[in-house]
Amino acid sequence: ALHDGFKEVEQELPGAEDLDGAAQALMRLQDVYALSVKGMANGVFQRAGTSRPPLYSPGRRVSLSADDCFHVGKVAYDTGDYYHSIAWLEEAVGLFRLSYGSWNPEDRSSLEDALDHLAFSYFMAGNISHALSLSREFLHYEPRRLRGAVPAPGGAGGAGRGGCHGPPPHHCPPPHHSFLAPLSPQPALEHLPHLGCSYETNGSPYLLLQPAKKELVRIRPYVALYHDFISDAEAETIKGLAGPWLQRSVVASGEKQQKAEYRISKSAWLKDTADPAVRALEQRIAAVTGLDLRPPYAEYLQVVNYGLGGHYEPHFDHATSRKSPLYRMKSGNRIATVMIYLSAVEAGGSTAFIYANFSVPVVKNAALFWWNLRRNGDGDGDTLHAGCPVLAGDKWVANKWIHEHGQEFRRPCSTDPQD
């Protein structure tokens, strides 16, 4: 009976893929926000090498065990990512040393395992002397279980195969996720006189009694934030409708769509007939943007959920190739994006515009709008943007992508062909 009961719930339980994904999420947060591994293991989100206040201070601190740190390091080790494996295995070794000799029923690994993997990581990173030192310590605990003699410097598998030189991790750059390095100083508000806030009706009777609360974030690219765009009740309704249909998000790859590590989230699509709340939201988007959302001029509403470490690396919303699946709608490219924040996020999750060098934090119930195409129909390169990893909390957004066909008289071409 116990076995049968377990089989029933097994599909809903986290598996090896989920566990490895959590480890990769921690490494992603470490890179993007330059976090200290020791701090993360202690439940503190502190930038490495600084004494500044933590980026985020949770109300309840949860520490990682030696076993947890070993697993994160092992995930990096198995993919040849010795920059991360060294940092996390060092922390695991330190924690295992503190508890060496005491039995913990949760432990799946040990000090010997951590030393073995750490020594080989240092060897592969080119620090042979430290690798030998760790191997000797490993031999002290397990004289009969050494994987094999450590190769001589420059031998097979050593630094001669190319890798990081010098004692890692200090001389090895992170292998990825550098796209959200600290942004250079943004212009002070007094130097951007055209930015401001206003009540907008956009000539729509729909907005006469309740104008949109518009904050102009940037002129180039044109980015606007509409505050209180959706109510709490509407947001909860939309999340509830999407919940049962959520699946791992896919991205366009050539003429196909597939899962990718650079987009970690779950998403679902909602038609305007799914619920009156969705239909009302579509009417509001049409009124604020002044664009035609009737099929096939716009896509269905996409609801996306990002968990811990969930992110989307730099990308364009518009297609950059005529072979893109976006053109199957036969309504042209994506002219504009409306992204509605359905939830608040405790830390992280900002939308960063890479080339334009600014970011917009998550503002619950607000809608972010920008033009993907210039008036001449060319893609706007300044709209390259990314979804920063969620550091704490749960991020829900709803995306509405509007296509260029049907908008010819709503956003006409300019007399300047370069505009």
TrEMBL record:
**A molecular-function term among this protein's GO annotations:** iron ion binding
Specify the Fe2OG dioxygenase domain's residue ranges. Answer: 297-404
Name the UniProt key words of this record, in alphabetical order: Dioxygenase, Endoplasmic reticulum, Glycoprotein, Iron, Metal-binding, Oxidoreductase, Signal, TPR repeat, Vitamin C
**Record-listed E.C. numbers:** 1.14.11.2
Keyword hit for Secreted: no
The cofactors named for this UniProt entry are: Fe(2+); L-ascorbate
Where it mainly occurs, coarsely classed, is endoplasmic reticulum
User: Could you tell me what reaction this enzyme catalyses?
Assistant: L-prolyl-[collagen] + 2-oxoglutarate + O2 = trans-4-hydroxy-L-prolyl-[collagen] + succinate + CO2
Q: Where in the cell is it found?
A: Endoplasmic reticulum lumen
| Record's GO cellular component terms | endoplasmic reticulum lumen
Q: How does it assemble?
A: Heterotetramer of two alpha-3 chains and two beta chains (the beta chain is the multi-functional PDI).
The family assignment reads: Belongs to the P4HA family.
Protein purpose: Catalyzes the post-translational formation of 4-hydroxyproline in -Xaa-Pro-Gly- sequences in collagens and other proteins.
Q: What is this protein called?
A: Prolyl 4-hydroxylase subunit alpha-3
